[in-house]
């Protein structure tokens, strides 16, 4: 097991910068998920930790030792890819034992390592099969088994479930989580899927444009997103945003002495005072679809564009001041919502962002 420290790490391909200085301290045994849209630099960072990409600037340390110039094989790290990268001509057992055989590990030791990994992954009955005789999920398990038998200091996963169908992804996600609870190995997991990030991570690292936007537990990112990017990226359906101006005192209307955000139609939505905002500063109000309340005498009126039953709940697609706005509710009465609904925004669920898009508290 190992801690992994990433300090001011930068990466450029030629003159094209891809990572702009990443700082991250990963504790021994932690499960870290790097999440962000395609192209934000997740794989690049992972591959630098593995030693598959050169580091343009900064330092990477594994268990306190600088590894910038260490060959991948000397880093004692195992990587699991989206493409399972199994040897087609080898059996499952031989695929799993390949790295140990290369290292001339004793036969009994190999057998016991493969046996125990196969048991953990439910691969016992498949050990003699070739990869082509396995399903996608089974192949992904073999790729994980191959990583486990090496007992590496850390596991790196690059979108390992992206080739699987939704149901299998859900199942493998739970298995990976159980496996981590069992092995307690330091793990870094890359995905563009925010649900995978939320469900698997001890801590999430949200990335955008080669810059770390926020690091925290899943619920920290969900409940107190640091900026508009994280607020919009984490959660589905995504957070609603309304632009306005921050007002205090008399201008806050219904809020009386309090504060509020004045929307384009003049409505003032009361919010708790935000020390970081100047009166009349441009601000964005955020509220998650599940926090919007439908109420007969609600503060704002919205047009109903579309009613989407998901079975579990209902998504109402609305237009509010001409902009798209969503509500998620478990109340089936919403299925018969009229052409308009009135809505309220409970104060404790409101997020406020400043003109630069950063959270204002
Ligand atoms: N070998 C390369 N040469 C030039 N540009 C690259 C190379 N690999 C990745 N990039 C660029 O670096 C950026 C980040 O890529 P990547 O780390 O693969 O993103 P992600 O894994 O988050 O989707 C992208 O803009 C991509 O086009
Ligand atoms: Mg990638």
From TrEMBL:
CC annotations in GO:
ATP-binding cassette (ABC) transporter complex, substrate-binding subunit-containing
Q: Name one Pfam family in it.
A: OB_MalK
List the membrane topology term(s): Peripheral membrane protein
| Principal location listed in the UniProt entry | membrane
- Subcellular localization: Cell inner membrane
Q: Where is the ABC transporter domain?
A: 4-234
Keywords recorded for this protein, A-Z: ATP-binding, Cell inner membrane, Cell membrane, Membrane, Nucleotide-binding, Transport
Which InterPro entries does the entry link to? AAA+_ATPase, ABC_transporter-like_ATP-bd, ABC_transporter-like_CS, ABC_transpr_MalK-like, ABC_transpr_MalK/UgpC-like, Mo/tungstate-bd_C_term_dom, NA-bd_OB-fold, OB_MalK-like
The entry lists its GO molecular-function terms as: ABC-type transporter activity; ATP binding; ATP hydrolysis activity
Task: Provide a GO biological process annotation.
Answer: carbohydrate transport
Q: Which family does it belong to?
A: Belongs to the ABC transporter superfamily.
Q: What is this protein called?
A: Carbohydrate ABC transporter ATP-binding protein (CUT1 family)
């Amino acid at each position: 097991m190992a801690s992994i420290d990433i300090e001011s790490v930068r990466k450029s391909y030629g003159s094209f910068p891809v990572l702009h200085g990443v700082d991250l301290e990963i504790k021994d045994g932690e499960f870290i998920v790097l999440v962000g849209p395609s192209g934000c630099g997740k794989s690049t960072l992972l591959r630098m930790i593995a030693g598959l990409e050169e580091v343009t600037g900064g330092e990477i340390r594994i268990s306190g030792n600088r590894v910038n110039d260490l060959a991948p094989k000397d880093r004692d790290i195992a990587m699991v890819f989206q493409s399972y990268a199994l040897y087609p001509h080898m059996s499952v057992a031989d695929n799993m034992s390949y790295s140990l055989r290369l290292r001339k590990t004793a036969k009994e030791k190999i057998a016991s390592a493969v046996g125990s990994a196969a048991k953990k992954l439910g691969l016992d009955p498949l050990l003699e099969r070739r990869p082509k005789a396995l399903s996608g999920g089974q192949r992904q398990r073999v790729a994980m088994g191959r990583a486990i038998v090496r007992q590496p200091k850390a596991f790196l996963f690059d979108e390992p479930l992206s080739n699987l169908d939704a149901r299998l992804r859900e199942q493998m996600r739970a298995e990976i989580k159980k496996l981590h609870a069992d092995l307690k190995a330091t793990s870094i997991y890359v995905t563009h899927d925010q649900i995978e990030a939320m469900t698997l991570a001890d801590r999430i690292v949200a990335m955008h444009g080669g810059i770390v936007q926020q690091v925290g537990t899943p619920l920290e990112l969900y409940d107190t997103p640091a900026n508009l990017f994280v607020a919009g990226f984490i959660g589905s359906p995504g957070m609603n945003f309304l632009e306005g101006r921050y007002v205090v005192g008399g201008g806050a209307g219904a809020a009386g002495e309090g504060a509020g955000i004045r929307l384009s139609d003049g409505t003032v939505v009361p919010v708790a005072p935000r020390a970081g905002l100047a009166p009349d500063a441009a601000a964005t109000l955020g509220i998650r679809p599940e926090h919007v309340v439908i109420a007969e005498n609600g503060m704002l009126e919205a047009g109903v564009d579309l009613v989407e039953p998901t079975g579990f709940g209902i998504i109402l697609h609305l237009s509010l001041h001409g902009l798209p706005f969503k509500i998620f509710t478990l109340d089936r009465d919403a299925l018969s919502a009229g052409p308009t609904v009135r809505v309220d925004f409970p104060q404790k669920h409101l997020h406020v962002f400043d003109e630069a898009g950063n959270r204002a508290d």
